[in-house]
Amino acid sequence: MITFRRAQASDLPDIVAMLADDPLGAGREDASLPLAQGYIDAFNADPNQLLVVAVDGGEVIGTLQISFLAGLSPKGAWRGQIEAVRVAGHRRSGGVGRLMIEWAIDACRARGCSLVQLTTDKGRADAHRFYESLGFTGSHLGYKRTL
User: Mean pLDDT in runs of 10 for the chain (147 residues)?
Assistant: First the structure.
């Protein structure tokens, strides 16, 4: 039985390990222990961030983060920004990701969001198909700049 809950500080090593466990994350994350202070600082930073874990039998098997964003458009609506979606390697392709995104959409709706959005790397074709199967559309082109 998979359950979802707000992440706790003790979950951080498992979360960072999942973030690092793919070709993109391997080059930008550091799962070595003790964790870099930046992970801990980010975990404690902002009440409009919801870091979530999926748990099965006491094991953390997935994670995602929702940023709740207030905006003037449209009409002062809140939106939920889903990021850092990861499923543990041994649980991929088993429906965990679908359950996680459905849970996140419900959490955004419960928080009063009128829109839920996400970004995914251009090179993740499988992820694009997955999100489209959940009703997301590639309606915008996003840009990032490293500082």
Answer: 95 94 88 94 89 96 96 91 94 94 97 94 91 94 87
Buried b (16+ CB within 10 A) or exposed e, 21-50: beeebeeebebeeebeeebeeebeeeeeeb
pTM: 0.88
Q: What torsion do the CA atoms of 79, 137, 103, 83 make, to the nearest 10 degrees? A: -60
Q: Residue 53 contacts by C-beta under 8 Å, 6 or more apart in sequence?
A: 4, 5, 7, 11, 14, 15, 60, 62, 63
Q: Is the peptide bond before 34 cis (omega within 30 degrees of 0)?
A: yes
Q: At what angle do helices 125-133 and 96-110 cross, to 10 degrees?
A: 60
